[in-house]
Amino acid sequence: MALCRALLRNKRDFQPNINVNVRHLAPTWLKRLQHNNAGEETPSSEVPSLNTGRSLADVLQDLNRRVPDKLIRTRVEDGYSSKYIPWHIVNRIMNLHAQEWSGEVRGITYSTDGKSVSVVYRVTIYGVDGEMYRESTGTSSASDTNFGDPVQKAEAMAFRRACARFGLGLHLYHEELN
C-alpha cells in the first residue's frame, strides 16, 4: 500500500491513466441466463465483461515515466555505485500500469566452466490493440550466493532489463551516462 501511495504521490512523474469501460448487459443475455430451461451454458461471446484494457501506447507512455526516487536503490560493487529498481517494485509498477502482462523464463544456461548462469526472460504486455513483448538476459556468478541463489538473481536482473526495454526505469541508465 505504501508503494502505491509513493507511486501516486508524485503525480507529475507517475500518474496512472486507467480508463474503465463497462459493457452493459443486453436484455436477451439476461433473459437466457434467467430462463435457461435446458441448463445449457450461455455462449461465451454473450457473457458480459468488464473491459479494463488499454492501448499499448497508453501503457508504454505510463511505463516510460520517471520512477520516484523513493523506490530506487543504490548498489555498490567494486567501488562503482549504480542505481536500480528492485524486481518486486518493478513487478508492482507493471501491475499498476500494465494490468494485463505476463512474464516467463525462456531459458537458463550455465557457462561451460560452471562459473556463471544466464537467464533469458520475456515480458509480454497486452493491450486492446495487440500485444508486445521484450526479452532480455541476466547473468550471475554461480559462486555468489548473497541474497538468494544465482538463478534467482539472474532471473531478477533479466526481468528488470526486459521491463526497461519497455521504458520502465530507463531514465536510470541515461543518468549513469552523464
UniProtKB/TrEMBL annotation:
Molecular-function GO terms, alphabetical: DNA binding
Domain of life: Eukaryota
Record-linked InterPro entries: RAD52-like
GO biological process: double-strand break repair via homologous recombination
Protein name: DNA repair RAD52-like protein 1, mitochondrial
The species this protein was found in: Taxus chinensis (Chinese yew)
